Amino acid sequence: MPETYLYSARTRSGIKRTGIIQAETADRVAAILDEQDLMPISIKLQKREQKPMFFGFMKSQQYEDLIFFTRNLSTLYQAGVPLLKALSIIKIGPPESYFNRALERIRASVESGKALSEAMAGFPALFSKIYTASIAAGEASGKLDQILDALAIMLERDLELNRQIKSAVRYPIMVIIAIAVVFVVIITFVIPRFVELFSMNGVQLPLPTRILILTNQIITRYWIIVLAVIVAIGATLKKIYSSPSGKLFFDTAFLKIIVFGELIIKGNIARFSYMFHLLIKSGIPIVKALEMLGGTLKNSRLTLEIGMLAESFKEGRELNDLIGKLSFFPTMALQMIKVGLESGSIESMLNEISIHYSKEVDYKSRQLTALLEPILTVVLAGFVLVVALAVFLPMWSLIKVFKGG
User: Fold this and answer.
1) 30 vs 25: CA distance, rounded Å
2) Per-residue pLDDT tens over the stretch 165-178
3) Which pLDDT does position 228 carry in this prediction?
4) Do 313 and 383 share a structural domain?
5) Angle between helices 286-294 and 260-281 (to 10 degrees)
6) pTM of the full predicted structure?
7) Are 83 and 173 contained in the same domain?
8) Domain boundary residue among 127, 154, 182?
9) pLDDT in tens, 350-361
10) Which of 99, 127, 155 finishes a domain?
């Protein structure tokens, strides 16, 4: 696997050059520099740093940083500021942030003769394949300013989609966590106190109370085993999900969940459509664009169906042949792509698809919240009822014992 090396070298005329090269060994870096007629001064292996992790693309803060960078680079570039100067002006967050260090190395690479897209490709945690491919197309066509604007819009839309989906699932997750915490507190601290009181007075315990007592005994006496079982189940599920067949199974199951599945599908299609629009706008051929897009979707089942769409384009088949074969890719989106191809307006049609499904995500997220509220209310009421019966039924029996005494 290639490593990233930082190098410092001089030309035959004595001019110092610095930059980064990806190669298997330092000797290979030296050979590459020699081929470029450069004399190495130093070659250092770049330390592996903690890189921003993606959620979709990445976490919200990194997304916002990338949008800020893209917008600023677009503004400076359109104002006539040279690219190297623009890269040295733009600063993202603290001076020693990962993004700023990456920008310094990108600038050094561009200064040494690399294209901007090639330099960005060395930082895949910040710049996705779609991003770098669009930049490369913009450089080749001379439309880098337009591509930067389109990239910023794409990132803003994607960030908004992620926020809508997170907002939709945040409420039920918080309620479930709250129920779990209350349950643990009751099992651990409340029930044992009542058990002592009821046992001392010989009260016959009802079924709900006995269930909670049994749960308490299992957790307190065998907590190591319980913890080990939970960890084992989690590790097993993670291992299964990490395999292609396991991921496909779970991702397909997720898409079948009522409302949640529709939210996942519409969010992915909205994102896919605008990325497709951007790549077509950049001048990238349709088949190549579809091949690139397959790896950017979060759901492997939808990725598989995008692959079928790409194969259809490769073989020159009618898109109507795919209707019925694609289980989750919306038929309406497929028909709109077909109309766009036939009318020569595929670029604008993809933009319309993206706008439509973005609105659908907004609607579905609000619908999800409205649907889950009564369900969670019933679940919460059921939980309160079980706990109340477990606590108060024995108390009534205790009162009878005292009256009888």
Assistant:
1) 9
2) 777 777 778 878 88
3) 92
4) yes
5) 140
6) 0.65
7) no
8) 127
9) 889 988 888 888
10) 127
Chain length of the chain: 405
Residue 51 lies in a domain: no
Same domain, 214 and 347: yes
Residues 41 and 65 occupy one common structural domain: no
Containing structural domain, residue 91: 60-127
Q: Residues 138, 151: contact at Cβ < 8 Å? A: no
335 and 275 in a common domain:
yes
The yes-or-no verdict on residue 231 having pLDDT over 90 is yes
Kind of pairing between the strands at 39-45 and 3-10: antiparallel
User: What is the reported pLDDT for 14?
Assistant: 77
Share of the chain above pLDDT 70, in %: 88
Q: What is the pLDDT of residues 330-378, one digit of tens each?
A: 888 888 888 888 888 888 898 899 888 888 888 877 777 777 778 778 8
What's the alpha-carbon Rg for the chain, to the nearest Å? 29
Same domain, 94 and 37: no
Q: Is residue 197 part of a domain?
A: yes
Half-sphere exposure of 217 (CA within 13 A, CB side): 7
Rounded average pLDDT over 300-310: 86
Burial label, 139 (beta-carbon count in 10 A; 0-12, 13-18, 19+): middle
Number of domains present in the structure of the chain? 3
- Does residue 85 share a domain with residue 214? no
pLDDT level of residue 315 (50, 70, 90 thresholds):
confident
| Residue 244 lies inside a defined structural domain of this protein | yes
Residue 138 in any domain: the answer is no
Q: Kindly state whether residues 211 and 254 are assigned to the same domain.
A: yes
In the chain the first and final C-alpha atoms are separated, in Å, by 81
